[in-house]
Design a protein that fits this description.
Layout: E1 8-14, H1 19-31, H2 33-36, E2 38-45, H3 52-58, E3 63-65, H4 74-86, E4 92-95, H5 104-110, E5 114-118, H6 130-137, E6 141-148, E7 158-165, H7 175-200, E8 203-205, E9 208-210
Parallel strand pairs: 1-2, 1-4, 2-3, 4-5
Antiparallel strand pairs: 5-6, 6-7, 8-9
Helix pairs in contact: 1-7, 4-5
């Protein structure tokens, strides 16, 4: 069981615009770290162009960038990312649109503490095109999943899920509209999950994430 007595330290990893990061920043600012149960201590990215870094800097947070191409091998990049993240002593690491798959070294340090979001109801439609794949399959409902990261692709233990209806207007050409509705649910769900884990702790038993009642 994760301890719950202190405000938890979060490192957030981003690759793009950082809207999930902003949702966390806004919730923590509105509630205060003590009530929310956590505070963000740093934001990392895999590219200097990630605008999520600008959101972090605007909030006065330290940032770091760890690019794959700056390292001779993917394994060395993974070790460098793990080291950069560990420097901030996080209790939880949140992938907020981080578009790189971490490796063994990162998971050795942060397995069971690394949270990710996915725009589908796992285990259905894993991978990079969850929204497109759900539409192509003819799913009537889809949604988002918040899960812990393991060494597979979107295969880690599920923490929480949010459901989004697929409507007639949702087509392959109109995928973006469905994706935006999913993102709205995803942001709220991620904030709720991080708050719950930080304030009340959790236990992972096999594939199940057990949360206090």
């Amino acid at each position: 069981m994760a301890p719950t007595e202190a405000v938890k330290r979060l490192v957030v990893l981003v690759s793009g615009s950082g809207t999930n990061l902003q949702a966390l920043l806004d919730a923590i600012a509105a509630e205060g770290p003590e009530r929310f149960g956590a505070r963000i201590v740093a934001v990392g990215a895999d590219r200097h162009s990630a605008t999520g870094l600008d959101r972090a800097r605007a909030a006065g947070l330290p940032t770091f960038v760890c690019r794959v191409k700056d390292h001779p091998t993917r394994e060395q990049w993974d070790a460098a990312l793990a080291e950069a993240t560990a420097a901030y002593q996080p209790d939880l690491v949140v992938s907020a649109g981080f578009m790189k798959i971490v490796g063994k070294e990162f998971l050795a340090r942060f397995g069971g503490r690394f949270i990710n979001t996915h725009p589908a109801l796992l285990p259905s439609f894993p991978g990079a095109h969850g929204v497109r794949d759900a539409l192509a399959y003819g799913a009537k409902v889809t949604g988002c999943t918040v899960h812990f990261v393991d060494d597979g692709v979107d295969t880690g233990p599920i923490i929480a899920q949010g459901v989004v209806d697929v409507v007639e207007e949702d087509t392959a050409e109109g995928e973006a509209a469905l994706h935006e509705r999913i993102k709205d649910v995803e942001r709220r769900l991620l904030v709720d999950v991080v708050r719950q884990l930080a304030r009340h702790g959790y236990r992972i038993q096999g594939r199940k994430v057990l949360l206090p009642a």
